[in-house]
Design brief:
Layout: H1 14-46, H2 52-68, E1 73-77, E2 92-96, E3 99-107, E4 115-117, E5 123-126, E6 135-143, E7 149-157, E8 164-165, E9 167-170, E10 176-177, E11 183-187, H3 194-199, E12 201-205, E13 212-217, E14 220-224, E15 234-240, E16 245-247, E17 250-252, E18 255-262, E19 266-271, E20 276-281, E21 284-290, E22 303-306, E23 309-317, E24 333-342, E25 349-353, E26 371-374, H4 385-391, E27 398-402, H5 422-427
Parallel strand pairs: 8-17, 10-18, 19-27, 25-26
Antiparallel strand pairs: 1-2, 2-5, 3-6, 4-5, 6-7, 9-11, 11-14, 12-15, 13-14, 15-18, 16-17, 19-20, 20-21, 22-27, 23-24, 24-25
Length: 431
């Protein structure tokens, strides 16, 4: 019987088929290795793992964003989140490399704050002083030369009354006063850092007179020259107290300048011994008026006094100044004292008197400490001595009282610092 060799379906023996398969496998491995080498070589030679395209795209995006970003630089004072901000300088806006197109300022409650953009559109500020203890929001839009918008938003809160102080001053801006009128400032809180606050206040005169401040206490400072102001001069008060720390955690808020004019020079001398009053204007006697000063039991203060208030009619009650009867009621209560002018805080006046006999004027001192001049009830008779003096006097005029037998009035009792020597006055300049 014939021996036959088995073959696979294509007529190749299993052994040869196995050999062929092994050959094909080796070929595939070689090809795979070759291709792998090419791929590895390609990856190494290019350095690109697929991020190059992404980086390039990001660069293009960044470049496009940069081209769309405005170069206008907006600045808002104060910075966002500020507490105890100034009521004078807060809310101011400026821009560089651009112009302002819109500024909106509102309170925390949404109330609009009026403001104005400068002519060159480089700045904006509120039209009026801000309120204390108030939160404000500022939204700003500016445009650069390419028309691209920049935005800025800020929120701040102004200083609260508990953390700030103000000074109430006299005389008023634009007023005309007599030669004895000091600049008197009364603060609403005690001042501990008097030197710093004093540096923030300047008083100057067009006359060139040296002006120095004197602290009477922690809440009052007055300014005056060595001698009375020169007639016709102009006095300027500048308060640069915004942000000045007057006491621990308490800051000034005032930033202003005021001026007033000194009128003609009028100094009146009251002589309680002769019971006559001499009115000197610009160095010349213009009137002599008989008076009635304080009685021997109620003497009038002596010294240089300044008229601080004028009332055509006013009420005077003895109880308000310590003159009471056994029942505790005022020894007098006159509801219509005519032509009254205040000389002291404690109640000294020079005023008209219609209730006393006409014979007392020039012959007897009968008052409770005031200086009385003959007058009529109703203050309507311009021919009386009291009416004449009232009509010819102004706030700041000097009234010198002498020969009463009483002590000199305290310098801080009214506007009467002239009763201190210049050495005493300047010694208190730093408190």
């Amino acid at each position: 019987m014939e021996k036959r060799v088995m073959t696979d379906s294509d007529g190749v023996s299993p052994a040869r088929a196995k050999s062929r398969a092994w050959g094909r496998q080796r070929g595939l491995v070689a090809v795979s290795a070759l291709l792998g080498g090419v791929l590895v070589l390609s990856a190494c030679s290019s350095g690109d793992d697929g991020t190059k395209g992404k980086d390039s795209q990001q660069e293009k995006t960044d470049e496009a964003a940069a081209k769309d970003t405005s170069v206008a630089r907006i600045s808002v004072t104060p910075k966002n989140g500020t507490k105890n901000a100034s009521i004078n300088n807060a809310g101011q806006v400026t821009v560089k490399d651009g112009t302002l197109t819109s500024v909106t300022m509102t309170t925390g409650e949404g109330d609009a704050v009026k403001g104005s953009i400068s002519a060159d559109k480089k700045s904006w500020k509120p039209d009026a002083q801000l309120e204390r203890a108030t939160t404000y929001k500022v939204a700003v839009v500016a445009k650069d030369s390419e028309g691209r918008d920049a935005h800025e938003n800020t929120t701040f809160t102004t200083v609260a009354p508990t953390n700030s102080f103000i000074g109430n001053f006299t005389p008023e801006d634009g007023s005309t006063v007599g030669v004895g009128m000091p600049v008197s400032i009364n603060f609403d809180k005690a001042i501990e850092n008097k030197a710093d606050v004093g540096k923030g206040i300047t008083v100057t005169s067009s006359s060139g007179q040296e002006v120095v401040g004197h602290w009477f206490n922690s809440q009052r400072i007055d300014f005056r020259p060595e001698d009375y102001w020169q007639a016709g001069s102009t006095v300027t008060l500048k308060l640069n107290l915004d942000g000045v720390e007057g006491a621990s955690g308490v800051y000034g808020v005032q930033q202003k300048s005021i001026s007033f004019k000194i009128g003609r020079s009028q100094v009146t001398t009251v002589d309680a011994k002769t019971k006559q009053m001499t009115v000197m204007r610009d160095g010349k006697v213009v009137k002599t008026i008989p008076i009635s000063a304080g009685s021997p039991e109620n003497k009038t203060y002596q010294g240089q006094m300044v008229i601080s208030e004028k009332f055509k009619e006013t009420r005077m009650n003895g109880a308000s100044v310590g003159f009471t009867d056994d029942d505790g009621k005022g020894e007098y209560d006159i509801k219509d004292v005519p032509h009254a002018m205040r000389l002291s805080t404690s109640g000294t006046f020079i005023h008209g008197n219609y209730w006393g006999a006409k014979s007392i004027f020039g012959s007897a001192n009968t008052s409770h400490g005031c200086v009385g001049l003959s007058d009529t009830k109703g203050a309507n008779d311009s021919k009386t001595p009291a009416a004449w003096f009232y009509d010819n006097s102004m706030i700041g005029d000097v009234v010198v009282v002498k020969n009463t037998g009483d002590k000199t009035i305290a310098p801080d009792n009214g506007l009467n610092g002239w009763n201190m020597s210049w050495a005493e006055w300047t010694a208190g300049s730093q408190g």
